[in-house]
Amino acid sequence: MKINILGVKIDKINQSEALKQIERWIWNPGKHYIVTPNLEFILAAQKDLEFKQILNKADLSIPDSSSLGFSYWLLKRKYWERLILWPLFFVPLKQLIQFDRVSGTDLMDALCKLSAEKGFVTGFLGGQGKVAKRCAECLQKKYPKLKIAFAESGGEINRNGNMTADCRLPTTVEDGSLKPVDLLFVAFGHIKQEKWIDNNLDKIPVRVAIGVGGAFDYLSASVPRAPKVLRKLGFEWLFRLMIQPWRLKRQLALLKYLWLLTRAG
């Protein structure tokens, strides 16, 4: 089931259901891509119509925010009710009126576990410096049977999802094409990674590509994750702000998001 939040389609799905669907795609012919929208994605999509289109035509749109269910609930209220109820966004009570969140980081970890069990080949592309290699090493240590074709940064990507002249993809020696994988994890940051996947999916040998944002940082332990209790209560954003104060400007965008929710027709 898909829902609509400010023009962005989100699948109402849990992690177990997502894993089963992705496994089916890998076993069968075809190519698919997955997006992991959170509130920043939805805000960006209000101005970037190309980005919105890419999100809406994805094969699977994972609800990667603890507040998307609350947002959907609030949008179903009358305008005057929204004006009264929006402060609930900041309290744990919202957990009573939301659907499951599927963390992109947790989904990536679960997909690597599944790949190790089923013999699927994975690829890691993106991140800063050598974080892709560190992430791959940590996951292979956790899941020794995990098959990894490559783990590379890929270099710089512009906002249109194009690689700059000095970028280099991990290629085969024979023909210079991207090494074939069943699952490709792409971590260029939101907007860039989704546009890169959209630009290149038909050209690369991959069954399923998924944009994973900062998951490489978390799974390589380069950046600490919020304790599970905070994640469950929907306050992971607050923990991230505490350890990364530079995110303040990004978090202030939540006020704009709430304004859009209350004003939506």
Automatic annotation (TrEMBL):
Keyword Glycosyltransferase: yes
Keyword annotations of the record: Glycosyltransferase, Transferase
Record has Flavoprotein as a keyword: no
InterPro entries per record: WecG_TagA_CpsF
Pfam families xrefs: Glyco_tran_WecG (PF03808)
GO molecular function, one term: hexosyltransferase activity
Domain of life: Bacteria
Xref: NCBIfam families: wecG_tagA_cpsF (TIGR00696)
Matches recorded under PANTHER family: PTHR34136, UDP-N-ACETYL-D-MANNOSAMINURONIC ACID TRANSFERASE (PTHR34136:SF1)
Protein name: Glycosyl transferase, WecB/TagA/CpsF family
Upper taxonomic lineage: Bacteria, Candidatus Daviesiibacteriota
